Amino acid sequence: MSRFTVEEFRTLMRDHLPVAVAMGVEPLEFGAGYAELRLPYHDDLLRPGGTVNGPALMTLADIAMYAAVFTAIGRAELAVTTSLTINFLRKPPRADVIAKARMLKLGKRLAVGEVELYSEGDAEMVAHVTATYSIPPDRSR
Amino acid sequence: MSRFTVEEFRTLMRDHLPVAVAMGVEPLEFGAGYAELRLPYHDDLLRPGGTVNGPALMTLADIAMYAAVFTAIGRAELAVTTSLTINFLRKPPRADVIAKARMLKLGKRLAVGEVELYSEGDAEMVAHVTATYSIPPDRSR
Amino acid sequence: MSRFTVEEFRTLMRDHLPVAVAMGVEPLEFGAGYAELRLPYHDDLLRPGGTVNGPALMTLADIAMYAAVFTAIGRAELAVTTSLTINFLRKPPRADVIAKARMLKLGKRLAVGEVELYSEGDAEMVAHVTATYSIPPDRSR
Amino acid sequence: MSRFTVEEFRTLMRDHLPVAVAMGVEPLEFGAGYAELRLPYHDDLLRPGGTVNGPALMTLADIAMYAAVFTAIGRAELAVTTSLTINFLRKPPRADVIAKARMLKLGKRLAVGEVELYSEGDAEMVAHVTATYSIPPDRSR
């Protein structure tokens, strides 16, 4: 069962993640070690070629992994990304982007996960991310 | 010698990279296969812990590599990132972030580079990025 | 349907991949864009801590992706890895290692895939790999 | 000053790193947070195209980072790679390969470094690696 709710994450975003709020990121569904979020399309996300820009995808993926860590261990505000790798697979069209993050490993000190990114309504992945989070020793449980 | 000027990149950003403009990214210095840019600090960049958020660093690094590709091959608007790996090294304090991007390899189809990120005025790297760009076959030279 | 058979890959390894032969790598099952291989355990694979060494896992993963590219596009001997990222998740015990590689994207110039590595008989992934291959323009189809 | 000598690493390899010995890896020069090693060329390293195979480069890079960690913190046999990213830049010809590893960050729990790989006698980098090592809490100092 998820240890953090969509509603709790929405509050956390509002209080602590201005970048997520500014982009309009919406948490959709959380499970234990799983988080699904949406990035609504808007024209400021475009880059030359008429596709959604790469940094927007990386930002969404990072927030999705952050959420997935919370679903696994509860509120851990000070968890920080230590590394992230993204592979861009297809040019994302002008559409909302959906991120599906899941934990691959949850250790005491490190959490590793992968995030699949899709354009809404399309079954082909547009980008694939793996990321590692450092879990603070003193996080509240 | 750089095949693209700071002034030309500023114009390109204004016309085609709304995300860079919104963040206030400033090109500082270009050389052949080298680009240095600044991300001015503002409070919207904060994340829990009082440090600059990771996505802001990734965004800056990606734009810096994009610029470095231009300095090496000239305007190549449709060059796209194919993969990017970031390692976060130290928590960036509330300060401007400087990106220094340089090409490691410039092939016909792929360009690979690395980006070092620093907090202004501090010699210790805050994050290290490697990224690969796909170069369009039909780019104007 | 796979465009390359397990038997063909065994022959290719024998003729062209001495490193794979020396390690005893065995192709197990191929599908279209999918390849499963085994690395038999032997004591030379150990590292301090009594676990299988990381380079052995990376080597197996790289060979598995190479095979997966063949299953998708047919023999493409000159396909080369352009980048590879591995996340080590758990310490692999003294046991055979199984690699499951599948394509995430097959473009004209680049193929991107992911490889999951398991210790034989254990459902928990020991390492996760993403890799990009450059596809030669003149490969035989 | 290096906290581990070339001679000590040679002994460690002989006792604990059979893969390094089998490949003939030679430590060349150590500094504080810096290690330079050589992989002598031999025909078993070839892959189709007549170049040194990628796994050999990854293996050398991983061993070089392991050595660099030792130079920085002393013997830490149980340090383990947590992630590694390699970008292949140029096809390495039939020649010895030199690895130059240096620490980018040395934390209490994680060490991050980069490794540059060269063909002996050639100034152009053939591959670039970043890697993260987890430092055991109980390592002997």
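Chain C has a mean pLDDT of 94.
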